[in-house]
Design brief:
By secondary structure, this protein is of the alpha/beta class. The chain contains twelve helices and eleven strands. The chain has an eight-stranded mixed sheet with strand order 6-7-5-4-1-2-3-11, sandwiched between helices. The protein starts with a helix and ends in a 33-residue tail after the last strand.
């Protein structure tokens, strides 16, 4: 079985257990944060990126008004099958929802300035960077539209990372220490996300909510689906391969059991909610949201006439951070408002005129017309899958290797 096939098979299993085993302690916690104070504009068009099994997609759908639509995408067709069944149970409300099996990487396939609201619950971590994700979300949002996404911030799993680091230092695992440092750095800081928000041309801020996950033992910790299907594969990679990885996890297991004994082992999660607003379009040279801005227009045409109204405005604005003021230069496309900006020429097959729906969208025939998918992919799986390498430290009856020293 190929690596891709194994990954698909794991995602399919994850789709079956996610709502019962992971969502209550992870996805729903972030989802509630995402929904806090969220209002969908009248007749608004909503894009839900990396919707998973539909939390908080279903609640957003309930908040839609007449004329509104929700487009939800996820790279996993298995995940979308779950959310389709949920939406089908909503009856006529489900007619406002459309689905597409699609990854947001390297970029969204939708046209610019389409959606009143763009949301993404926990999908940013699978994208190249926070800044890349926010720029793309801002691109498809209309002027005046809102972008919301949740993600774990720096400090998440801090207790485990500290213990992991202590084990590696004690046993002179220098290469693994470097890998751990790189892994921990993937959780962005508050200040970094704030700078990414400004670099994407969005105004707004970040809200942070902290909660803890409790585990009765090291065994329960590593076997909990939220860990097994979350950071555990990366933690194994940090430790190295083969026996080196097994040795490190023996040490980690013993350290958790020794430090916490009969007390529960807890790890902190720092949940971040990014709320950004795309500024309304203004004339070149106008101040943007109170910031002093100087705009230079670089037209693509020659002189006046054919090239007029094309090009970009480069907006420079000072953004205050704890480290001082950063200057953010953001290219803003100029739009010729004299042209027809509608999407009526796009053939999408949607049940009413497809204004503000992205180019290239289409609907496939399905037995339930209320639960439709815009595009999908089929995957063939090799049933003779090799299981992931188990952790020896948690195999019943497995003895601690003799070569390990205290």
């Amino acid at each position: 079985m190929t690596v891709q096939a194994r990954s698909i098979r794991k995602i399919e299993k994850l789709a079956r257990i996610y709502d019962d085993e992971i969502a209550p302690c992870w996805g729903m916690r972030f989802g509630k944060l995402l929904l806090r104070g969220l209002a969908v504009p009248e007749g608004g068009q909503v894009l839900d990126v990396s919707c998973g099994t539909g939390d908080p997609t279903i609640e957003i759908l309930r908040r839609l008004t007449e004329g509104s639509r929700l487009i939800a995408i996820d790279e996993s067709s298995a995940m979308l099958d779950v959310v389709r069944r949920k939406v089908a149970a909503l009856g006529t409300l489900g007619k406002k929802a459309f689905f597409r099996t699609e990854s947001a990487v390297p970029r969204l396939s939708f046209a610019d300035e389409v959606y009143d609201l763009v949301v993404c619950n926990l999908g940013v971590g699978d994208m190249p960077s926070v800044e890349t994700a926010l720029r793309d979300f801002a691109r498809v949002a209309k002027p005046g539209g809102e972008v919301r996404c949740t993600l774990p911030l720096a400090g998440t799993f801090e207790e485990f990372h500290d213990l992991y680091r202590e084990v590696l230092v004690k046993h002179d695992k220098h290469d693994a220490l470097d890998r751990l440092k790189a892994h921990v750095a993937r959780y962005p800081s508050f200040d970094h996300v704030e700078r990414c928000l400004a670099a994407a041309g969005l105004t707004g801020g970040i809200e942070v909510e902290e909660f803890s996950l409790l585990f009765r033992s090291s065994r329960e910790f590593f076997f909990a689906p939220v860990i097994e299907y979350g950071p555990l594969p990366d933690w194994k990679t940090v430790a190295g391969g083969g026996q080196d990885m097994q040795d490190v996890f023996w040490y980690i297991k013993e350290a958790i059991d020794a430090y916490f004994g009969e007390r529960p082992f807890h790890v902190t999660v720092k949940a971040g909610l990014v709320i950004g607003r795309k500024p309304e379009r203004r004339a070149p040279g106008a101040a943007i949201d109170g910031a002093s801005a100087e705009a230079e227009v670089e037209g693509e045409g020659e002189g006046e006439g054919e090239g007029e109204g094309e090009g970009e405005v480069e907006v420079e604005a000072e953004v205050g951070t704890e480290d001082g003021a950063d200057t953010i230069t953001t290219p803003v496309p100029l739009i010729d408002d004299t042209e027809d900006a509608s999407f009526d020429h796009i053939e999408t097959g949607l049940p009413w005129p497809p204004y503000d729906i992205a180019a290239g969208s289409r609907i496939e025939d399905r037995s339930d017309p209320a639960i439709q998918e815009l595009a999908s992919g089929d995957y063939a799986l090799d049933e003779d899958s090799l299981a992931e390498q188990e952790l020896d430290a948690f195999i019943d009856g497995k003895k601690r290797p003799h070569h390990l020293v205290d």
